[in-house]
């Protein structure tokens, strides 16, 4: 049977010692003790469930993602904890919350990790909430991809999911603060945007600014949304003018004394740098509020 699986999954391994990254594979053992490891990126959640009926699943969790006490748990949730040793330069947090905990956490974790980049780390805050830590690569998950993952997990485990995607940050001692700020935003998203399965900072900015008007938080929102673009005064003026012209590109271009194509180029540049598509109202509102704060 395992030989047949190897034909279907040609990159599968027979021996745990053949890889240094055990958790990049889904492992199974047959009745005589033979094992097979199938790359997470090559197997679907449905195939995993089928193989669990035929073989014994094996769980090899290294010290970085063992529930509940991990280096990342300690670093993110305990004061003055040491930064975990990692080769990552930038990471983001994908926060998730579940309606109940009546399921196998190890199975849920395996199913979730099967859809994400192989070096991602999942840690649990409690039985119904956790964080996926994702590094900055070309494989970084889009909002639509997370929505598809959320739908699949709901179907497989009969549990409702909510997710919040943070921004990428440098791996340093500031990460716990960013996690805490994003968690506040996630809580607001669940309260004010209950119909959205996957949300991000752009979705919740107006509610965040109303609920938390401290100077420290305002500075954090500005830096998260604008980043280095805040130093581009010409771009900031262009976007603000465009929004104030009711998103009328022709009128805004006349106000700015530039060609309409130049205006469109700047709008596209702002969208690329900030993730805000100001051609739709919620993002335009978030951008305008941030620009006013930055002024």
From TrEMBL:
Pfam families: HTH_30. InterPro entries: CdaR-like_regulators, Homeodomain-like_sf, PucR_C-HTH_dom, PucR_C-HTH_sf. SUPFAM superfamilies: Homeodomain-like (SSF46689). Signal peptide: none annotated. Residues 235-292 form the PucR C-terminal helix-turn-helix domain. This is PucR C-terminal helix-turn-helix domain-containing protein.
